[in-house]
Amino acid sequence: MAPSIIFSLLSLLLVPTSGYVQPPEEGFISGVISDKGLDYAKELLIEKGIASIVMLQLPEIENSAQVPFVGNAKVVLSDITIKDVLVNSSSVKTGESGVVVAVSGATANLSIRWRYSVSSWLIPIGISDSGNASVEVTGMQVGLTVNLRNQEGSLKLTLLDYGCYVGDLSIKLDGGASWLYQLLVDAFEGNIASAVEEAISEKIREGIENIDNLLQSIPKQISLDKTSALNVSFVGNPVLSNSSIAIAINGLFTGKNEASVLQGYQKGLKISSACGGLPKMIKLSIHENVFKSASLVYYYAGKMQLIIDELPDQAILNTAEWRFIVPQLYKRYPNDDMQLNISVSATPFIQVTYQHVAATIFVDITINVLEDGEVIPVACISVEISALCSVEIVGNNISGRLKLQNFSTYLKWSKIGKLHMNLIQSLMSSVLKTVILPYLNFKLNRGFPLPIIDGFGFQNANILYTQPWIAVCSDVFLEDYYYLGQHSAYAS
């Protein structure tokens, strides 16, 4: 089978279908596949498997037999081509022995060109003929068993068992004598069956080998921007049980060429596979430490700061607007332009609750006066922001949007004397709503990619909150099939 066939299946077989799963140690992202997802993967596997077999040409077969009253007949079968395959029933199961995919009761139709020559002392000149034949193969069974192991952060795919078995053959000649028909049945039935079995078995072996190479080549780190990368290396060995596979990845943000900055994951935590009664194909669970690691990386890289010299209400950035709120500022710097240097002063506190993602952000707003080309810091106001973040799935990315709950301010330092913070509160509120939150939401809206194989997409995704995890319950689709209108056959 072509490499994409089994890879499509493995990209969906992520984590178990019922109850709880014990994730491998240090895995911050793991997931679930439901019976609906398994059925989709199986049907996709079969569909693409058939596509790789149809028009497959088998090796030429040559045989001879002694025909009464005719002599020695030499028959050659060439251009043996599998024209189509129909599957009666199929199944996919997982267990301690591995992942088992089986097809039973399949039929296949072959086209064949035949030619023969006969020579004997009765017919010294010899005779020959050629023509076509069709073969129907019934009772065909195909199966394979694979196993997955972690090999230095990558998945190692091993083919444990595989094969193809042909039940019966029905041969129909176009032309030829009755004796030739019987010769084909008697002398070639086993040869044709063996050729089909060997060709399909070889396709399975080649496909697994290619997919193993592909799995080994998957990067262990996804570069997100100039600052951060996402560690997507596998942790622990996949855990196989009845109808389930458990796989987890590290999932933490890191600085470029740096190790993970966050440790201390609570080992032994059980992850529910339930999707709130929703019949979804997969469930991806993301630990709050993933978001914490992102905030740590950007904070220590000095990327959580912003200088504001333009606002929708530009008057705020002139000391004249502050003359009644901070008279001493206007008195010392009359009618001067200003800028605000906004920086996150500590790593944000992020927590997943049972209803939302709560965030506490600590911001220092330094007030600068621009005088004769010089930037003069005059005061610094610290703001503690409490916000709720709603999580969304945009394409194959997870993104968020902050909504302000409340905030508090205090004066951190001042070169212009004591400030009346109750009067400054309204200005700070305007800055928060028009600058800081829109800026943070712009960054959050970019999101980060969820670990799904290229070519697949999320569809009808729902978000569930289960402290300390966020779960994405979703159907998936193969994008090429979806746009060709073929996805509907698997979505029901």
UniProtKB/TrEMBL annotation:
SMART domains associated with the record: BPI1, BPI2
Listed GO CC annotations: extracellular space
Top-level taxon of origin: Eukaryota
Domain Lipid-binding serum glycoprotein C-terminal: 276-474
Residues annotated as domain Lipid-binding serum glycoprotein N-terminal: 33-258
Any GO molecular function: lipid binding
A Pfam family recorded for this sequence: LBP_BPI_CETP_C
Keywords from the UniProt entry: Glycoprotein, Signal
Signal listed as a keyword: yes
Protein name as catalogued: BPI/LBP family protein At3g20270 family
Species annotation: Cajanus cajan
